[in-house]
């Protein structure tokens, strides 16, 4: 009976974990550059005295869906969307180099270039600072140019190039802060082949309809596990009744 309850309890627990992942995906279906988290259920034997006679389910992390989201045209000169593969280098909360696909950029009061999450966007020379200007242009290779205050229409000055990298999907992982890093712990070298589209932002690649369907399915699975608790209680009551009759 204890094994029966343990399996039902572990099943309910792992369904809740999967539901949490799915709910987080759904909550970020409108977050620019967000990549859906993936997980799956696996069967594990219940070890104990003798041979394992039962198995329980475990929710395992399978990584992230690195497929590109659709590009939304915004017309803002500071918005960029990566065309194809690639990542934007940003400064993580601990000061290290991390990567993201979020390209809704802005300039703060001190001139630092930030993305919509407030992460400092890095260039080949470190954090990018945009001085006062008449206009800003971001080229397809990530080069940032400005027309200085009082400058002529054709007077453009290069500021820096956004730190763009292109590691393979197998080389990166998603951290708890939502940023990506290399599994090796090393720093990815900038790539000259990554291209960006100015005036566009990459949308989340979460399929909201699929996430809603999964939410309903996980809810039903959770209810099924809870019903097993009731079955175990009834079986326990019947066993106690039989013992009292004997």
Regions with little confidence, pLDDT below 50 for 5+ residues: none
- Main beta-sheet annotation: 5 strands, antiparallel
Q: What sort of overall outline do the alpha carbons produce when their principal axes are compared?
A: elongated
Number of helices: 2
SSE ordering? HEEEEEEEEEEEEEEEEEEH
Distance between the termini: 20 Å
Helix proportion: 25-40%
Helices and strands in order:
Layout: H1 2-27, E1 37-45, E2 55-64, E3 71-73, E4 80-83, E5 87-91, E6 97-100, E7 105-107, E8 113-115, E9 120-123, E10 126-127, E11 133-138, E12 143-148, E13 157-161, E14 164-165, E15 172-174, E16 180-182, E17 195-198, E18 200-202, H2 208-245
Antiparallel strand pairs: 1-2, 3-18, 4-17, 5-6, 5-9, 5-14, 7-8, 9-10, 11-12, 12-13, 15-16
Can you give a write-up of this model?
α1 runs antiparallel to α2. With 246 residues, this protein is α+β, with helices and mostly antiparallel strands. A hairpin with a 5-residue loop joins β15 and β16. The strands form 7 sheets. Strands 5, 6, 9, 10 and 14 form a 5-stranded antiparallel beta sheet that branches. Strands 11-12-13 form a 3-stranded antiparallel beta sheet, with no helix packed on it. It has a two-stranded antiparallel ribbon with strand order 1-2. It has 2 domains: 105 residues, no CATH class; 132 residues, no CATH class. The longest helix has 38 residues. Helix content is 26%, strand content 32%. It contains 2 helices and 18 strands. The model has no long low-confidence stretch (mean pLDDT 88).
